[in-house]
Specification:
InterPro entries: DUF1214, DUF1214_C_sf, DUF1254, DUF1254_sf. The chain is of the alpha+beta class. The protein is built from eight helices and 21 strands. The strands form five sheets. It has a six-stranded antiparallel sheet with strand order 12-13-14-20-16-17. Strands 3-4-9-6 form a four-stranded antiparallel sheet, with helices on one face. Strands 8-7-5-10 form a four-stranded mixed sheet, with no helix packed on it. The relative contact order is 0.16.
């Protein structure tokens, strides 16, 4: 998918979505002798220098990067007219869902670090246009979770097997919605913003039998505007969707944030995500400079230059997993506040840049790796092993996997069409001592006995990524961490 941008579109969206006025923070206590309260932020009557505007643009670009990312995905989906198949992707209009019917294909480039253990769905939320109904079918014993995030990429929904969610109808509403909840709705979830994304994940193992079995439940996964709710279960045959031209092939993730468009987009973005407690002065600072930049091209240019500098020097380096996160043994790293970032601007932007749309910690625990145990960059010119001791695979109630990504954090086609190993694989071979060794290398192992455990490495640099879905306490509390990645040659 490609982001669609234009000044006309932004103006139309502003009218369409009716962004709410920014909430003002509490007034500060009046200083002695002044006799009046002082508002947060700058005095908007004073002259602003270009250097200051550049500084504010640089700072704002960094901490709003995930918000602009999600906002521009909404602008893209606003142009989609019908639910359809588009090359390796599915697409749907705003407030509707599109589901795959098998693992994501390696050509996918919309969201970095996809998972080939689940069947994905995607839908863009525009809750100011309408609340939406989410259908949950009966998944039986199958693992599932519906991830739903707001403009900040923070989760505001708890729907999944780990929550004991029952089949039924659930309602997502925006921050200002005060309508009546119709009979038949099990629970209402209120989003802090009108814009967001929903991405169901339904576990599927690697057997032909399970790939057939999952088809019976996928048609009941639906999202649609509240006006269409009548209390009856709606279904969609996701295998029969029309096919539209795919996006041009790309090596890297679809670009969603542009420094040159940042100054024009930011007012709409901030209006859809009122300041969190303590952010009032930060918002006032940015909005004051944005207001001045409307009538002063030099200030607008300075803000744009600051955004471009932040993009190159601050945001881009965070694509590398080794540049952020909680540092663990053997050069692995992790985070503990995924999809609940709040005002942790650094982690939120780092995650959005490297692997946006992570689940909440109790839903999925993530472990990232760019390096081998000696600190060398993982590269297909070498061979590696990852050995889980007996009983030492990730402790989970759901499932676990070890995925491999190229330098751009995507899959690359390989002869056995394998991009992850774990619970989904029914033919992994244990060592005589009960341990499990995964062979990470570009060529198939010379020993036929090792080929069931082969994880093909793409050319050049690559990264490894452990997911623990519905993790047990040992994972959540840090008692379990991944084993070292050992260089074999």
């Amino acid at each position: 998918m490609r982001a669609i941008h234009s000044g006309a579109l932004l103006g139309a969206v502003a009218l369409l979505i009716g962004m709410p006025a920014l909430a003002q923070g509490p007034a500060l206590q009046a200083s002695p002798g002044w006799g009046r309260a002082m508002p947060p932020g700058p005095d908007t009557r004073v002259k602003i220098t270009e250097a200051y505007a550049r500084l504010v643009g640089r700072d704002a670009y960094f901490w709003t990067w995930p918000m602009v990312n999600i906002f521009n995905r909404r602008l893209h989906f606003a142009q989609v007219k019908e639910t359809a198949r588009s090359g390796p992707l599915m697409q749907a209009p705003l407030n509707r869902l599109a589901m795959l019917t098998d693992y994501v294909e390696p050509e996918e480039r919309s969201i970095a670090c996809p998972n080939q253990d689940v069947v994905y769905g995607i839908g863009s939320l525009a809750l100011d246009i309408s609340p939406v109904v989410i259908q949950v079918p009966d998944f039986g014993d199958r693992f599932w979770v519906y991830q739903t995030v707001d403009l900040r990429t923070d989760s505001f929904v708890q729907l999944g097997k780990m929550y004991g969610t029952l089949p039924g109808f659930y309602l997502l509403v925006g921050p200002n919605w005060n309508g009546d909840v119709p009979p038949g709705i099990t629970k209402v979830f209120r989003s802090p913003s009108n814009t967001g994304l929903m991405a169901p994940r339904i576990f599927q193992d690697d057997t032909p039998e399970d790939k057939r079995a999952i088809q019976s439940v996928l048609p009941g996964i639906m999202m649609y505007p509240l006006a269409e709710f009548d209390g009856t279960v709606k279904t969609m045959n996701w295998t029969k969707l029309p096919v539209v031209p795919p996006p041009p092939p790309s090596e890297t993730e679809t670009r969603w944030v542009f420094p040159e468009k940042f100054v024009d987009e930011l007012p709409l973005v901030l209006a859809d995500a009122p300041p969190l407690p303590g952010e009032e002065a930060r918002y006032a600072q940015v909005l004051a400079v944005l207001t001045a930049a409307k009538t002063d091209p030099k200030l607008k240019r300075a803000m744009t230059e600051g955004a471009a500098e932040a993009d190159e020097r601050l945001v881009t380096p965070l694509f590398q997993f080794r540049n952020y996160g909680q540092q663990l043994p053997h050069n692995w790293s992790t985070i503990s506040n995924e999809s609940a970032f709040g005002t942790d601007y650094f982690t939120r932007t780092a995650v959005a840049k490297s692997n946006i749309m992570v689940n909440s910690p109790n839903e999925t625990k993530y472990f990232y790796q760019d390096l081998d145990n000696a600190g060398g960059r993982l590269n297909a010119a070498s061979r590696y092993t990852v050995t889980f001791p007996k009983g030492g695979t990730p402790p989970v109630n759901g499932f676990w996997s070890l995925s491999i990504y190229n330098e751009h954090h995507f899959f690359v086609a390989n002869p056995i069409n394998r991009f992850s190993v774990g619970t989904k694989n029914k033919d992994l071979k244990l060592n005589t001592d009960g341990s499990l060794t995964i062979y990470v290398q570009s060529e198939a192992p010379s020993d036929p006995a090792q080929r069931a455990n082969w994880l093909p490495a793409p050319k050049g640099d690559f990264s490894l990524y452990v997911r623990a879905y519905w993790p047990k306490a040992e994972v959540m509390q840090g008692a379990w961490t991944p084993p070292p990645v050992l260089k074999a040659n």
